Amino acid sequence: MARRADQPLKCPSAQPGMADVRLLGVISRDGETPTLAYLDEPVAPTPDMLALAEPLPVSHVFRLAANCEEKKCHHFDGARCQLAVRIAKMLPEAVDKLPACTIRPQCRWFRQEGRAACLRCPQIVTGTYEADEVLKEVCGVPPRRDATPANEA
Amino acid sequence: MANPVSISLKNFSATAKTSVAKALKAHEAVFPQPNYRIGFIPPWWLGIILDNPGPKATLADAQKLATDIHGGLGDAAPTLTTPTGEPGVVCWPGHIICGFILPPDLRAGGPMMQE
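YS: structure for the whole thing
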């Protein structure tokens, strides 16, 4: 059995098709803002489970965890996940205690940023149409140079 | 400040269905007159622009069309779609990914595309 330190770190905002995908939770929209409801056990998603997101993309409804792809990911700078850095630095805390998360020991964001990442994690929706300017900056979207809407999304 | 939320596997399906219904409702409120671009993200962008889709075209319609096209392309030309590709709809102010995303040099056919 692999020691914990030998196991690959997990990206907590992964996409379908990545290696060793797990369902981290469902985006609950019961409150004012979308919030991750963490599944209380680790589950490998079945096609039927992911199909529950239709007609929306999976990334709008579920949070998936998967092996961190490191240099195959736009956010990895060779040593650290810069998305996790920006989340910890730029977003407000969303909860006041650590969520019951099934991947924390292997989570890339936690390993790097500690509890600061966990306290902000519930507000992250992997795919969204509703990002404000701060979240866009966190996601690495360059600021718009003009205010002309619509055709150059 | 809110407490963290947990759910059990037993509640998973109901929570997901409620989430989808509320998200669609919110999207329809935000995009009553959408200007859709349909494509696959990441790692490819293969966009189709629907100009003036009309007031009755919903985001759900556009997403279904993207999913159907993506599925059709997957059958017809598997090299055009990858496990990390996801059909999506982009509309103003734009679809944002806050998570794994391929770097630009890999999006156009790098190593992951060959897997």
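YS: worth flagging: The mean pLDDT of chain A is 87.
IM: good catch. Also Chain A is about 25% helix and 20% strand.
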